[in-house]
Amino acid sequence: MSNIPSRRLISRIAITAVLMVISFPVLHGEERLPILSAWEGSALEGTGQDPLPFEPVPFYGAIEWSQPLGMVPVPGVPGEHYLILERNGVIWHLDGELGERKELIKLGIIDGISYEVKGHRQNLGACFHPDFPNTPEFYLRSGVMTAEYGHNWLTRFELDPKNPFILDPEKEEMILEWPANGHRGGDLAFGEDGMLYITSGDGSSPGDPNNVGQKTDNLLGSIIRIDVSQSEVGKPYRVPEDNPWVGVDGIYPEIWAYGLRNPWRMCFRPGTNEIWLGDNGDEDWEMVHRVRGGENFGWSTFEGSHPFRPGNPLSGPNPTHTLPIVEQSHQELRSVIGGFWYRGKQFPELEGHYLYGCHLTKKIWAFSMDGEEVVGLRRIADLGGQVVSFCETPDREVIVVALDNGLFKLQRSPERDLRPIPNRLSETGLFTSTAKHEVAPGFLPYEVNHPSYWDGAEAQRFAAVRLDEERVQIQMIPPAVKGKNELDKARSLAGVDRWKLPSGSVLMQTLNLDGRRIETQISLKDGGEWRYLTYRWGDDQKDGELIPEEGADVELIRVDGASQKWRFPGRAECSACHTQRGMFGLSLTIGQLNRDFDYTSLGGGVKNQVEVMRELGWFMNANVVRDPAVHESLPFPDDESASLEDRARAYLHVNCAHCHRETGLGGRASFQLINWLPNDQTDLINGRPLVGLPGVPMEEAKLIAPGDPDRSEIYRRIATVEMGKMPLLGNHHTVDEEGAELISRWIKSLGEGSKKQE
Predict the structure, then answer these.
(1) What pLDDT, in 10s, does the model give residues 627-651?
(2) Would you tell me which of 92, 288, 498, 506 could form a disulfide with 475, CB atoms 3.0–4.6 Å apart?
């Protein structure tokens, strides 16, 4: 087995460096494993369901954005102009006629408007005054986070009517602020009544343990309504007299409606003053609400229409529960994003439909209303990116903003001739015998150095690469830190690898529990796109049956007679982890594969896995992996010869970093868990969680509190399967006891003297 070197420390600069693809001629004539046949493909290729009616098209795709979070059309100005809000505080001007952008302002590091604080400011939402440019005002919702400070800000910029594309920090005025530790909401829009409406999340821990959602003595979990055209004593705005609870003791008069968890994106239905918004659920449900003044949407007594914390009854000025217009379970959606009522001309079939999306599943949905009844609820597109916002263009067409890969418009999908997906595993062509679990010729078995956790199951892994014309391309991110000795220098020069597989490739793993096969998960690159399927093994262990697209939850009976809940992932859940940032195949890295495997059954003896793949001619840039000794290996979790920190960081990298990294699904949390970043570049040590679990006061909670696992949010989330557990997938119903213990030991080893993160 290869030696296990210490983890490289590569600076954040390397992460954003341009990827270099080092290409060499494919080496021919290498000795293959005697009985490993060439992979000819499977019966899964060319199968699928009927395509969704629309597909995404990049909107000015030549422009690269860094975590765009919102898009605002500039009204009253000739041409087509937009402001693009990036999460990091940058606001850009996009000239739609020229296809060019110009940076307007960067607010990411704040000096303070009414406070002298140092921290990070994130753009959340924005809008122009409805009478712009006659009233040259621009309104911005921000989230502000420091080590001790978490607030929502609503500010106003005074613009120059002759040049509205200049945002001057000196002309930014604080309008409203209120505390929030996560769940910020963050949208704002002017209603047809001229009032400004702002969404506010509950700012609370998972499960809302303090019942914030049913309290109206603060602005959390509410829709706020104010008149910014006037002011009153002590406020740069006026509370409208027709707000529902003006003059009622103990209630903030700015509140228009309440009982919301994290209302993310809203719009007004044309011709009405009705707000329509998406509200992120907690454990099981996602909601679309129609909001009218004085309504209570029930959080957290209810999650949608379903009891959530029935021991805390509905309270506040309105004890009547207003039900959602639409609610969908987490088998369909996991993070709803509110959208727009379609008013364009390009797609007449969508006229009068409300369009909305899902951040995790990356799908776009639509429905229309027949009186009070929802009709035609359906998925209409797969964006392929993490939906965060919608924008209506001047001609009423819709642009969708994706946090990880930019701006998109929609076009009709071309017709495709697809065969049905095989219903039985034995019909896929992946096995010569499913009953014996004998894989088809061309599959190479492999193991990983640091396996991910799957509710206590063990995995058998296989890979097949079709080498008709393409090969595996190894993309190297060049490192910025080099070692001190020659071996460390060689390892450093190897860089960080990402594998791009050719079309027709298949990755497959079968999960076994108590020695019995439970499921086989398949990742297939078909026609250049990755698809994900899961098959459930029958009790007789002879074959597997296709799991529906939305996944399934079952009760398994263990060997000892105990029952265990089990989640078969839906296809969208798979795509939440298998993303472009990791090149889709999470286990295919040199760090995971750089180890020996016994290929005796294939006539090859004990060999290094990476070397075997090179010998098989898998790699286009073969010299990159010619000598496995110069490449780093992830340490085994229980390898005491490796440092405790290396093993703990490897655990977080494998189980968590596919989300908690730049543009990952965990990107709304401002820390990264990729293992090649040193601790002081992860924002982990003494970092403040956006939303903490119950039991530790927010002022005491840290992502990693050196020496104290019980105050460390990372450990606490790994060590539970209750609300707020992490990872999101993989530990649905059981705690990874060994992993939690590893992280606990590492945190204790850090001690109290670690440098506090600014």
Answers:
(1) 555 557 888 888 888 889 999 999 9
(2) 498
